[in-house]
User: Fold this.
Amino acid sequence: MSKIICTLDACTVINLILIDEEDYLLKKLSLVDLHLAEKVFYEINRNISKEITTSEYESKDIDQVLTYFRQKRVLDDVITTEFGKNYFAKIKNITNYSKLNGEFYSVALSMYLSRFKSQKVFFYTDDIPAKVEFKEFYNVQQIGHIADSVDFLMMIYWLDDNFRVKELDRFLDNLHSRYATERKLFLSELRAFYESKLNERNNRNQLKRIRELSVIINHLNNADYLKFKQSFSGMTSLYPEISRLLKKYKLVFESSSMSYNITEKIIAYREKIKVDKIYKLMDLCD
Amino acid sequence: MTSFSDKFKLTTNPFRMTPGVQDSELVWAGFEDVKRRLESRIKRSTRIQNSSLVLNWGEYGSGKTHAARFFSKNEELVRLKVEADAKSIPYSVVIQLPKGRNAVFSIYKSIIDQINIEKVRNDFEGGKERIIEFIEAISNNNHVEAVLKAFFNEGVDRQLLMKYLYGVISNSELKKLNEFGILRPFDDESDYTKFLSNLFSCLTYEKRIYSCFIIWIDEFEDISVLNNSNIDRINNFIREIFDNTPNNLLVFLNLTQSAQISVEDLSQYMHESVNSRIKDRINFELPTEELFKNYLADLLAQFRVGTDTNKFYPFDEVVVNNIITELGDVSLRKFNETLSLLLELSDLDEKYPINMEVYEEYRADIIY
Assistant:
């Protein structure tokens, strides 16, 4: 039986690494036919050290994990050798997507894999805005499906007879904690930034900007993430230095959209798996 | 240009917008009820043996962190010891609830960071033999016993011992500690918990040197962002610390209420074995008008230069009343922010005292 073809985005891979316990999930990745875009691996390599403190991971552990993902990398040259050197420019044109980031290259890789292997491809990303942006392209081109870490964990669960519901719940819990912690850390840094601006204010013009920042922080404090996102986008023009926080806490911004919030999905799915059985192959046999 | 103190009869801008760090910045103003309740808890712990767990809860900016730092000042600990007629002062540390995976090790490290081995050894110099006897009596673990004895032993190199306690000692350095009975590193949560609880007991032995050990755990609301495994770890740690330190330990949990977690939600994150140990819940409630005004008068008095018949000088009382009404239900931090801003604007524009005319001019800038 052929395996399900998957590509993972950098944020999804980093989430999996951080929520994993003793390589439990890493070992399960052999259940799928996993591919990573070259750019995605580059992003993982660049960002993983910022996410992991030395007290939590030994450097040799993370090297082993990265070695595994390096083996799943598909070099851009491999694709352009088959489809020509203009392939990525073509995809950029078709998708009308302006950034050359991991999400873009994952989509390009998915297209390549779907046509080359004549199979549907699952692309897993926790960048919800990117997911929304590429959804139509995926559907129209019949490449496959775009989903997120929650969906990936659910799929791994039913693929593996030994993966128990209790363990699935534990990893969903770890994933929820990851997002909740990032949000909390972001709120703390944003407050500290606000307080530093309070101390710096020495003219009336600054007061207006500080007032706006205070309102934005209140949205986050009140867990009103939609209002927060809507109002935060104007902040970088008022405080250019805040773009550092935007980059550092990308996860907070990418985890929700107008109609979707990954932490709410995790909570909902954790409830669902208590009530609804997720059927594995053997569950369906008499 | 007239000086700040001449204009406003204040030594400096007294309105802090973040909790102070240096002792000179840590003053207490108003809020007598909360102060009295915290003092009562601390004084009780200096006099009686029973260990206690207390929950402090309130909105963001209500003064919980400030309380932790204020009551950890040596000057305050001495005052409380005198008022309680206790044998000795408490040892107080302030830590934050960790958010990472190794929660127990993080708590352990934060506490060790604030214990000065050199000072402790000096303090216990006269009673070395008694403390050794005590360690042998309370410890049921040879390894922890050996480490504790080394802690109080001047003959054990302090730097080496600190490396050991932080878990960064090399194998060759560990060999130097073998003669003191230390044969292996601490390697699990049980080691950290046992060591800490026995250390607390030693430090407060017969209340001779320290009457009690106080731990303020700040940002306790962060328990809601942890996964179940770490929530269990935190609960187990608290339960075991109290099980193994039945005497002379006082723990304050500072919990900030928010949209994510309220004090009612706490039972979701706290095991019954820990919840049931909470002796008192102190509410750092949103201040009423009266509380705000008492606070303001008291604070200004502590920074006063000279005298004034108006206890709110440089603010007219009618301005204070208006600010309180306009702000509505806000935290103390917000109140401080507003008054600080008003004072700064007045200072910039040389407009004082701050009457209604001045207030109206700045109102749109400061009320939001």
Remarks:
- Chain A touches chain B through 27 residues (CB under 8 Å).
- Residues 80 and 86 of chain A are 7 Å apart (CA to CA).
- The first strand of chain A starts at residue 5 and ends at 8.
